[in-house]
Structures are given as C-alpha cells and as structure tokens.
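> run fold ABC transporter ATP-binding protein
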Amino acid sequence: MVTQHVLPELRPMWWEHGMRARVDAGLRGVFAQLPRLVAEALRIGWRADRARTLVVAFATVCSGAMATFGLLATQRVLIQLFSAGPTPDRVRAALPALVLLALATATRGALGTVTGYALNGLTPQVNREVERRLFEMTSAVRLEAFDEDSFADDMERASRGTESAIVLVQEVFNLLAGVVGLLAVAVAVVVIHPLLLAALLVATVPNAYAALRAGHEKFRTFLAGSARRRRLWVLQRLMAERISAPELRSYGLRDFVLGLYDQVMGAQTTIEMRLARRVTATTAVGAVIGGVALSGVYVLLGALLVEGQIPLAAAATCVVAVQAAQRSLSVVTYQVDRVFANGQHFNEYVGFLRKSASHLPAEAAGALEPSRLQEISVSGVSLRYPDRDSPAVDNVSLTIRAGETVALVGENGSGKSTLAAMIAGLRAPTSGTIRWNGRPLDDWDAGALRRRVSVALQEHHRWPFTAATNIALGDLTGDPHRPRIETAAAMAAAHDMIQDLPHGYDTLLDRTFADGQDLSGGQWQRITAARAFYRDADLLIMDEPSSALDPRAEDTLFQAIRGRQGRRTTILITHRLANVIHADRIFVLHDGVLVEQGRHEELMTAGGRYAQLFTLQAAGYLA
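> ok
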C-alpha cells in the first residue's frame, strides 16, 4: 500500500490574481471598474488597428439600431395583421412592414459578419502589439533584474496578461454588443408604451442578478481550491512529461503519484459538487423570482389590453422584446465577469512594463565606440545579490592586459563567475569600477562593447536551432560562414561529433521537433565553446568549459585556448587546476575576496590556498 503524502503548497498561479480581485471587489466594485477596463480595451484595439476597431464599434452600434428598427417593424406587421378586414387585405397591408423587417434582419446579420471578420483580423494584431512590447522589455532589462523573485513572478503574470489583452478586447466588444442590444429593446419598448420599460426591468433583472451572484460564488470557490489545482497540475506533468518519465519508471513511482492524484482529485471533485449545488440553488431562486416577475408583466399587458391602453399588436411585440432583452442581459452578465477578470490580468501586464522601466540599463550620453582591448582594470569592485547577507564579490581589484591568459580559481561560491560576469558587462557592480582601456564600462557603447567580448557560460542555454546556427549565434553581425563555423567547432572538439549527426551541421538540436536530436551534456558544452570561439573576440571568458568533457575533447579545447595566448585575452574559470598551469596569472578567490595571485610556480611556492587545492586534486590522480 502506498503511503499518501501531501505536497507542499505552491505559489499562486497567474490566473488567480484576476479572480481574487473579482471576489474582493464584489458586484459594486466590478461595475465601478468596468468603464476604465472598457476604455483600456478600446485603446489597445486602436493602437493595434484603427480601421478594424472603428469597423467593429460602428457595426456594433448599427446592429443595435437594426434591432430597435426590427422590433418596431414587427409591431407594424402585427398591427396590420390584427386589424379588421379580409385576411388578404391585412396581409397586403403588412407587406411593407414585412419587407422592412426582412431588411433589418438581413442588415443585422450582415453587420454580424462584418464584426466577426474585423475582430478576426484585429485579434492577431492585438497579440503582436502587446506581446512585442513585453519582449522588448524582457530582452532589454539588466541581468540583475532576474535575481529578484518578485520580478520573475511579475513577468510570469505579465506574459499571461498578453493573452488576456486579446480576450479583453474581444469580450469588451461582446459586452458592448449586449449593452447595445439592451438599449435597442428599451428604446423599442418605450416607443410602444413607457410603462412597459419598468415591466421589462422587473422581468429580466432577477435572473441577471442571480447569474452575477452565481459567478461570484464560482470565483470564490475556485480560489479556495487553488492549491489543489496547482498540485493537480504538477502531478499531471509528472505523469505525462518526457523529462520525468525515466525516474518515474526506474523508481516505480507510478502507484505513488497516481495515489496522490486520486487523493487531491477526490477532494476537488467533492468541492465542485458542493459548488454545483449552491450555484443551482442561486440560479433557481433567480429563475423563480424572474418567472413570477414575468407573469406579472403578462398580467400588466392583459390589464392594459382590457383597458384599451395598448393594442394587441403592441402586447405581442412586448413579449418578443422581453425575450430579446433576456438574451441580451444574459450576454451582458456573462461578459461583465469575463471583462473584469481579464482586465485584472492585463493590469499585471501594464504594471510589469511600468516597473521594468527601472531595470533598463542607463544610456550614456555620447557613448563611445570601444577600441581594441589593451587593458581591463577592476578597482574595488563588489556585488551583493538581493537575497544574500554577504557579498558575492567583495572589494576585488586586479588588472588584465591584452594577450594574457588569466585564470580565476577557488571553491564553489567563491565569486568567480560573478566577477567574470561583471567584467563582461553582464552585471553592474554594487560598488567599485571596471575600466576598459582606462574608461569605465558605462562610457562605452554597451552593444559595441559586448561584441568585443565572447562568453561561454557554465549554465549555457540549449538553443533549439541547428548545430550551425547554434555556433553562428556567437556573431550575428554578418551572414553565417560555414568554413568559419567548422573551424570554431574543430577548436572546441565538436566538428566530428556534429558530422556524425543525421544531418550534420543542419541537424536541429531539439527533440520536440521532427528530425530533432538530443545531445549529451558534454556535447552541448562543445557547441557552447564553439560558439564562443566563433566570435574570435578581444576578450574570451570560458566558465567551466570542460566540466562535462572527456579527456580527449578537453585536451583539444585547452590547446585552442592556449593558442590565443599572446594574441587574444582569455579569462579561464575552472576547477581542474591542471588546465591553468600555463596561465600568465592566476587569481584565487575565497568567499568573494581575492586572496592570492601569481603564476602557478609562485603560488605553489607560497603554499597558500591555491597550493592546497592543487595538491589535493593532484593526489586524487596519483592515488
């Protein structure tokens, strides 16, 4: 028997924020915010495509006008049909009104087609407008923005806000259509008899209010079960995704995970059944009240008919109007909740864009084009991450000259990668200054400076492109050059490995697509190193470039790195200290502090931290 465990609660998902706001706002708050949300949706549509937005708005209003015209034409038809005289005469008298009714109905149908066509064309343009604005921001913010947990959460919700923007625009126009339909019915009823407007409200409002209350109850219950749904989402992924499939089988976790699923799903099903009973009761009460009210309307119509205040045709038209009003009000009540919830999601998108502006890199006035690297100086540089008490790099000063190969070594967490990221301009120091050829990095044009630096990151990304494109990403200033790509691959011991792939350099490195291929960690590391070599930059930073390589590939890689010595500048970060023996200088960091520096022989003679680490590692090979 599998022991049941309760998964820890996960953080709220993006869609819960709009629903929580809906519950907290209540019905009065919802209607208070609707005008702003409607205006925002119209602004989005206007920015994306003015012509289609105007077409939808115009067609919606005209469709309402046609509804009013159709009801009045219906009344004229009924008046003629219910009048005295021979039937053929009454039918002939009703024909003009029938023609007008047919024209109104046809025009309204045509306007519906126009509206649908315009909305279908507007939707992808809204998507492009809001999504591109988001990606313009996320791809430009400083790297340290991603260190903040709140930024990651805000970005997740904002990315869903792009989808909500599309829905918001669509639902606002649907809401407007429902409102215009209601107004059309109201106008027609007032023309028939003003007293019937009050009767119409009495007949339709109870059902609408019950629907809104039922929606409120659904949102509230949905939020109460949010943790369960998040757990279900995790469990469903664990049982259906490729990445978890091997361990699920090797450890025999199928019954365990299915047991968790049954436990959580059972609780969720019970709650949903309770909700169904409450919603049914609420809507049933609304239906009963609405039915009684509707009966009262019919009694009122009968009284007016008996007293001769309205003709039979007007009473019949009023019945048709009540039915039309109920349909329009049903649309309105449904769309109110949809507009509000999606509006809250879109607010997350707008808020993210506003807050992200503070993370954009400052643009230096008159930024200079960087010259060829002569010297990098690091003066009193420190960096502190938001969630840590101690600095990752603490008051480090060093100088690197053109053509040197230097190594940053130290134990895990000593600050090597963080220091290298600051030298590369990927992170800004909390204090201190980094200079390129005597000028602070901020004085140089950031894009041009980065083109003079090539970085092979320890935590590299596996880009879902072909092998050739993956390498050519190292320099996109011109068209990819196959001989140059192959040369960079050979330097990283990747050429033969790529040639053995089904389509060589044209093999797609993503198994989720047809003919895509998986690579091992060591093979991806070769691709990453080749990408760095392809740029042939003034400064090459290699962060743990051989941690997953076999000995032969590692030797090829470090021969290529040593080949840069005296010609290009290289910063090497590695735990395999045998590979830094030939470095011009070795900088030893510990807890973010630079504790030693010198050549290999000097540091071994000094007998300090570097000598201890090197001796310990060498002993492992000799044992």
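Residues 194-309 form one domain.
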